[in-house]
UniProtKB/TrEMBL annotation:
<dbReference type="InterPro" id="IPR002251">
    <property type="entry name" value="Cl_channel_pln"/>
</dbReference>
<keyword id="KW-1133">Transmembrane helix</keyword>
<keyword id="KW-0677">Repeat</keyword>
<dbReference type="InterPro" id="IPR001807">
    <property type="entry name" value="ClC"/>
</dbReference>
<dbReference type="Pfam" id="PF00654">
    <property type="entry name" value="Voltage_CLC"/>
</dbReference>
<feature type="transmembrane region" description="Helical">
    <location>
        <begin position="547"/>
        <end position="564"/>
    </location>
</feature>
<feature type="transmembrane region" description="Helical">
    <location>
        <begin position="377"/>
        <end position="398"/>
    </location>
</feature>
<feature type="region of interest" description="Disordered">
    <location>
        <begin position="1"/>
        <end position="32"/>
    </location>
</feature>
<feature type="compositionally biased region" description="Basic and acidic residues">
    <location>
        <begin position="1"/>
        <end position="20"/>
    </location>
</feature>
<keyword id="KW-0406">Ion transport</keyword>
<dbReference type="InterPro" id="IPR051280">
    <property type="entry name" value="Cl-channel/antiporter"/>
</dbReference>
<keyword id="KW-0851">Voltage-gated channel</keyword>
<keyword id="KW-0868">Chloride</keyword>
<feature type="compositionally biased region" description="Acidic residues">
    <location>
        <begin position="21"/>
        <end position="31"/>
    </location>
</feature>
<feature type="domain" description="CBS">
    <location>
        <begin position="719"/>
        <end position="785"/>
    </location>
</feature>
<comment type="similarity">
    <text>Belongs to the chloride channel (TC 2.A.49) family.</text>
</comment>
<keyword id="KW-0812">Transmembrane</keyword>
Amino acid sequence: MEELNRFAESEAESIERSQQEEIDGINDPESNDLHQPLLKRNRTLSSSPLAIVGTKVSHIESLDYEINENDLFKHDWRSRSKVQVLQYILMKWLLAFLVGLLTGGIATLINLAVENIAGYKLLAVVKYIDEERYMMGFLVMAGANFCLTLVAALLCVFFAPTAAGPGIPEIKAYLNGIDTPDMFGATTLIVKIIGSIGAVSAGLDLGKEGPLVHIGSCIASLLGQGGPDNYRVRWRWLRYFNNDRDRRDLITCGSSSGVCAAFRAPVGGVLFALEEVATWWRSALLWRTFFSTAVVVVVLRVAIETCKSGYCGLFGHGGLIMFDVSGVEVTYHAADLIPVAVIGVLGGLLGSLYNYALHKVLKVYNVINKKGKMHKLLLALSVSIFTSVCLYGLPFLAQCRPCDPSSLLDSSCPSTGREGNFKQFNCPKGHYNDLASLLLTTNDDAVRNIFSINTASEFNILSLVIFFALYCVLGLITFGIAVPSGLFLPIILMGSAYGRMLGIAMAPYTKIDQGLYAVLGAASLMAGSMRMTVSLCVIFLELTNNLLLLPITMLVLLIAKTVGDCFNPSIYEIILELKGLPFLDANPEPWMRNITVGELAVVKPAVVTLNGVERVGRIVEVLKNTTHNGFPVVDSGITITPPLGSSPNGASELHGLILRAHLILALKKKWFLPEPRRTEDWEVRKEFTSIDLAERGTTIQEVTVTKAEMAMYVDLHPLTNMTPYTVVESMSVAKALVLFRQVGLRHMLILPKYQAAGVFPVVGILTRQDLIAHNILDVFPHLTTSKGKKGH
């Protein structure tokens, strides 16, 4: 007991000291060097980590994806009838249907709101421009953008900090096994919807694609748990989904539905979830995600057909991102592969450069945001004003271009409305401003314009250079402010600009349409920054509706990803590292094969174990003085018969692993025994259910235990997971990491290589923090010779 007290005191002091250092680092902007992570790292293994979720600093924990095979689980599984199993299967499909239905409906709502708000704003601005009241037009535009940004930023700063940003890195982390607090709550969902409408309508250089992925995941999580925490529906059928494993599957369906809703790409949405966000996958999950995306497509199609009848205000000529280039004949020869390869190389170079620059900008923004909520607001509003000035002022630098005689006949040039390829802006009759056609419009219409086919002479090269330079700057300074934002559309805008410029340069030597060059440029920059290939290829095919683009799109994506990988990780991996989320990569570092899990166990604090029948006082003491979430349960004094007929010896038997939440549940229910003994099955089932074991959230501070109860006992055997994953202490860290990640573990027990009487059955416990590369290198600095090189 004295040893436990000394260990508990030393560990508590260590944790308190490390957490205080982290908090000091967060509160002291001057202490955060721009070359360091956003949060200071602990110098010990298995520490309680801090991470940035959205824009909120939170303590994070791992999720329990492993099946907890204790006596209650086994009884519940054996007692399920065929009807209950059928109910479980039907509920999975019903929830997948509802996820697709609600995600499609909310995506339609967002697009309706954005197109109408931005549309009427632009109509008001154009009205003043037609009257040559340019200053009034600017004030209307800047004022509207300022107010819309203010609404989005206020909601994110004061009500739901986790709603800021795209949300995709946090979803990747959750599906990797990291619990991200408040990431999928009802408040986050509402703020994400309203904030996305405000930020996109304000003309900021961001898209609604990332937020839609987050929205779909929020819907899935809320459906799986029966609603918000305070108003949860305790429906009997939903008890099957009161666990992290099924919630993981639902959130995977939600993320794929969000991508489908953003791009109207059902297959691309499924492949995005498979390639980018999901860590764990199986065929049954593939079917349900595809079913969800199919439902989303049906909802969007119904909405578009309805809006074409004129019931949706200004929304009716697209609205959803759909860049149809099916009307152009794609013909190319061997010589055309050279400029296509050049686009791929440019995409890889510019994508990695964009990742590097954004990494630095996010560090600067972190220093600003840590100064307080008002600084977050001022930063967002400053970006809004700068964006408005650029979008309205830069078209005055462009020269007016005469309209083509054929377009004069059908009145398509010049256009004075809120959309069109040939905006008149400040030009005389019969002329148009090509830069205004790209800037004085919504981001979706800007992409449609720059992707437009059979318009070889529409854009001046100088206008495209200005457009590209502007969106490079806006793409860097807009991402990271306290509003919901997505990276897809800004990268598409930048990539399409240099793609079109290359198309103009190659016009005398190729027959490929300039609009297709813009499509290939956008694809190359996305692959160079996000490092996706298969899902991006399918998404662009579904976007452009032209299967003939498949060969050259594949070539561009492969080249861009290969070039980008030579310089830095993908943008989402960079953001995960900046936020401090302990993401387990699929490929272990090569030097991890040179160190064993036993060596990790040596540098960790001594493992804390509990007896199978434990005294209440010791359980309370362990829970109060440690932060561990799992404890090995060991039965001491077991009589075993050694081989070769030797005399029996007393030994310790590893019964399994018990979770902290289950210990607190036993204390909360006061399931105490006056004397140490094993309980009967009926006693356990009378007091506990499998639903009780799935509940989380109670802390040891909320449990009251009297002095008399401290001397009583608890039988831990029925609550213990009797089949935890175990490894031998001689296993390499690389092999343990692969097992830990693929199975989705929270704890992995390390057993001694030699089993004998008198040898303690557990050497240590591995958790997620122990397998993070930089944590290991902090403890074993001699391994830094191979730091940064990925394994294969």
